[in-house]
TrEMBL record:
Keyword Cytoplasm among UniProt keywords: no
NCBIfam families, A to Z: fdhA_non_GSH
PANTHER family named among the record's database cross-references: GLUTATHIONE-INDEPENDENT FORMALDEHYDE DEHYDROGENASE, ZINC-TYPE ALCOHOL DEHYDROGENASE-LIKE
Domain of life according to the entry: Bacteria
Pfam family, one: ADH_zinc_N
Keywords on record: Metal-binding, NAD, Oxidoreductase, Zinc
Cofactor(s) the record lists: Zn(2+)
Alcohol dehydrogenase-like N-terminal domain segment(s): 38-155
Entry protein name: Aldehyde dismutase
UniProt KW Protease keyword: no
Residue intervals of the Alcohol dehydrogenase-like C-terminal domain: 199-269
């Protein structure tokens, strides 16, 4: 048993403000419920995610005092009495989805919409608004429930620490980007457009290459992020520039549409061209229907919310967007939305990392920081830094 430890975490204080504060040391419980099926982790790495940034910008109903963080890799320091297949000392990746392993959806592999871990709605995550009240993992220590089901154990501890900058991305953005590509139908010879060159977009671009895409095109408004996409062989389109997107695709591909489209932007999207400072939440979805060939598929790992208090109009505040859905219907498009079921992909993607088939840390430009540097990391990320900030709470990476 571990007790009497101190613990610190990154705490949301209100729009635009996070700070590192003392928080409770985790126990194998949630409120009055015992979690004998859980473990306590010493956090090795925990990453800042774009969806955390939505909350920190005040674009959700997140309450002040929320401990942030759902991208967690750690070492087990305590096991509950019902944990059978893991032990103290194991180094593990934590899917950001919390899943019971017992409900209908979990048994169907739909771990992003587990029915038993969030009283408000299907699906839960650590440190996230409306996602079940679970304490976040941007901290020194965290509790993970249903450990035998949820956790991916790395086969060799030393090898895991050696490749931790890559393996830390298995908790969310690499499976999420990969899922976006899979649901967009990316395969050998595909032409793919990735909307957004943030960390998820870059992970999707690297995933498209892993899946055998012939040409991966990344669109964004941030010159540094586009440069990062080019660094591992992507074509790019600067969306601040005027011009018809079909013409821009034709200049790259010789064709005016792509086979597959992946939306890695989500609800804080902005208009293109001279209006790029103006928010237009449906613009990526409408572009997807215009740019994808008839019969093509559209993967939407980018986050869309049911409530957006900071939206530009009353409809968007309720998550209602003005989409030209008839165009998608006419072109027989398929759309795939929702949280990535991380567990579906994390083991094969771990193998791809361990056998050097993907250099994901280089692709997303991982920058390791201390826990105390987290508020600055949030500020830099919000400013458009072409980096993926990875917090190292115990100095185990550096």
């Amino acid at each position: 048993m571990c007790s009497n430890h101190a613990n610190r975490g990154v705490v949301y204080q209100g729009p635009g403000k996070v700070e590192v504060s003392s928080i409770e040391f985790p126990t194998l419980s949630l409120g009055k419920r015992l979690c004998n099926h859980g473990v306590i982790l010493k956090v090795i790495t925990t990453n800042i995610c774009g969806s955390d940034q939505h909350m920190v910008r005040g674009r959700t109903t997140a309450p002040a005092g929320l401990v942030l963080g759902h991208e967690i890799t750690g070492q087990i320091i305590e096991c509950g009495s019902d944990v059978e297949f893991l032990k103290v000392g194991d180094v593990v990746s934590v899917p950001f989805n919390i899943a019971c392993g017992r409900c209908r959806n979990c048994k169907e592999g739909k771990t992003g919409i587990c029915l038993n871990v969030n009283p408000a709605r299907p699906g839960a995550a650590y440190g996230y608004v409306d996602m079940g009240g679970w304490v976040g993992g941007q901290a020194e220590f965290v509790m993970v429930p249903y450990a035998d089901f949820n956790l991916l154990k790395f086969p060799d501890k030393d090898q895991a620490l050696e490749k931790i900058r890559d393996l830390t991305l298995l908790s969310d953005i690499l499976p999420t980007g990969f899922h976006g590509c899979v649901t967009a139908g990316v395969g050998p010879g595909s032409t793919v457009y990735i909307a957004g060159a943030g960390p998820v977009g870059l992970a999707a671009a690297a995933s498209a290459q892993l899946l055998g895409a012939a040409c991966v095109i990344v669109g964004d408004m941030n010159a540094q992020r586009l440069e990062q996409a080019r660094s591992f062989g992507c074509e790019t389109i600067d969306l601040t520039e005027e011009g018809d997107m079909a013409d821009k695709l034709e200049a790259i591909l010789g064709e005016r549409e792509v086979d597959a489209f992946v939306d890695c932007v989500g609800f804080e999207a902005h208009a293109c061209g001279c209006n790029h400072h103006k928010e237009a939440p449906a613009t990526v979805l409408n572009s997807a229907m215009q740019m994808t060939r008839a019969g093509g598929q559209i993967g939407i790992p980018g986050l869309y919310v049911t409530e957006d208090p900071g939206a530009i109009d009353e409809a968007a505040k309720q998550g209602a967007l003005s989409m030209r859905f008839g165009l998608g219907w006419a072109k027989s498009h398929s759309f795939h939305t929702g949280q990535c079921p991380v567990m579906k992909y994390h083991r094969p993607l771990m193998q791809a990392i361990l056998f050097n088939k993907i250099k994901i840390a280089d692709a997303v430009n991982v920058k390791v920081i201390t826990l105390d540097e987290a508020p600055n990391g949030y500020a830099d990320f919000d400013g458009g830094a072409a980096k993926k900030f990875v917090i190292d709470p115990h100095g185990m990476v550096a």
